[in-house]
Each structure stands twice: as C-alpha cells, then as structure tokens.
UniProtKB/TrEMBL annotation:
Keywords: Acyltransferase, Transferase. One of its GO terms (molecular function) is acyltransferase activity, transferring groups other than amino-acyl groups. Residues 5-162 form the N-acetyltransferase domain. Gene3D superfamilies: 3.40.630.30. InterPro entries: Acyl_CoA_acyltransferase (IPR016181), Bact_Acetyltransf (IPR050832), GNAT_dom (IPR000182). The keyword Acyltransferase applies. The keyword Acetylation does not apply. It comes from Streptomyces gardneri. It holds the Pfam family Acetyltransf_1. SUPFAM superfamilies: Acyl-CoA N-acyltransferases (Nat) (SSF55729). This is N-acetyltransferase domain-containing protein.
Amino acid sequence: MIRTLTIRPATAADLDAVTSIHADARATYYRGHLPESDYAGPEELARARTGWAGAIERGAVLCAEPDGEGTGIAGIAAFGEREGVMVLTQLHVAPAHWRRGVGGALHAACVEAWRAAGTTTAVLEVFDRNERAQAFYAAHGWTPDPDSPRSGDHLVLRLTLAPQPE
C-alpha cells in the first residue's frame, strides 16, 4: 500500500506519462486476444495520444502520484458525460503500482467528482477477458448494466451513486 497519494488534474506536461500508462495497460489486457496493431501500432498510439491531449485540455483526466517516491504518475482516470450519463472512459494503473491502492484512490476521486456534480449514474465498458478489472469494478459496486449488458467484446457496467452526504 502506498502511504500517501496525490490525486490531481492532469496537465499538458503529463501527456507523455499518461499516454505511456494507457499503452502499457492496453497491452496487458489485449495481448493474445487482439492483433497488436489494434492496440499498440503506430497509428493507434498516435490516435491515443491525440485523444488524451484533448481529454487533458477539457479537464477530464485525473492523475495519481505517490508522494515522496519520485516515480511520477502511477495511475490515470478519465471520464465525461454522454447523453446525461457519466462515463468512466479509462482507469489505468501502471503495473508497478498494482494492488497498492492507486486504482481505488482514483476510483474514489471520480465518484467524489461525480457526486459533487449531481451525478446519480455512471457507466463503463470493460474488455470481457479483463478479469482483473472486472473484479476491481465489482468490488467497488459496479454491476452489469441491465439496459445494455454488452458492447461487442466489452461488458457494460453501471454504478448507481447515492446522493452526496450533506
């Protein structure tokens, strides 16, 4: 477990680290299931970098930094609203920081932001073979979306949020 962790909005200076964590995470769960060009080819990496740059500019990306470790960013999360529902589009933790509380801290920060914005429902898609992520989300209260349980080779999960305590 990391002793202290700072969760903060990503800045343009974080783009390389954010893109790297994203690429490493996708390689971890897609390797052996999809052609490498689908998740790690030059065109895909350029597309991802452009997407992350836009998300950072919109203020839709959070970074987790372990305090005092000098290791840089350990995890990232991105979210945005789509058709009146909050969507967790990405939550990745660098493999060196797995099982150390980084993902849980990022998730808690997202939920706090969603509650502050008055959000009552959030959804996400998770690769159907990414059992580690599915277990993480289940432990944090996510359940299969009854309205749309699948999207291709991804499961759709839903989180219903209680109102923010006053």
